[in-house]
Each structure stands twice: as structure tokens, then as C-alpha cells.
Amino acid sequence: MPSTPEHPAPAGRDDDFTRRLHGVVAAHLEVDPDDLKDHLDLADDLCMDSLAAAELLVVIEEDMGIALDANLLAGREHVTYGELKRLVSERAPVA
């Protein structure tokens, strides 16, 4: 039985958007895209501090053309990659 993502993209969000976001994040973090899983904690598993998280948001904005609040991740503890995808997807314009 196939597993479902911890935090699937919102209904209506196409796979191309998710693949692009995945590629942008993997490239910025310099990790193998196959190793970037939804359950990974940005801080604990991917060694991102608040500055690195802010830099990642800027990269996502520039590469994906999405306006993101610099404080999108501020005050959130144990944010996973899956949660990051969900937060970004919620703010992306629907094509």
C-alpha cells in the first residue's frame, strides 16, 4: 500500500509546482533531492538555523516568483519540510 505524504499539497496544486519547489529547496540546501523527505525537521535534520531559513525563503521567492513573509517560519518550532511545502503552497497563486 503506498504511503501518503505527511502534509500533501493543497487540492488543486499541481505536481509541477511541488517538483519545482523540491528542486529549489534541495539545491539551496545542497542535499540529494531523493533524501529530502516531508518528515525531516528543518532545524534538527537539515541543520537550518533562523538565518538559513530566512535565506531559503528568499531563494524560494526569487526562483518560484512567490511573495513570502520573511517571518513565515518565525516562532514555529520543529518545522518539517512537509510543513514548509504546505506553507509555501498556500501562498502561491493558483494557476
From TrEMBL:
It comes from the Bacteria. PROSITE patterns: CARRIER. Residues 15-92 form the Carrier domain. SUPFAM superfamilies: ACP-like. This is Phosphopantetheine attachment site. It comes from Micromonospora nigra. The lineage of its organism: Bacteria, Bacillati, Actinomycetota, Actinomycetes, Micromonosporales.
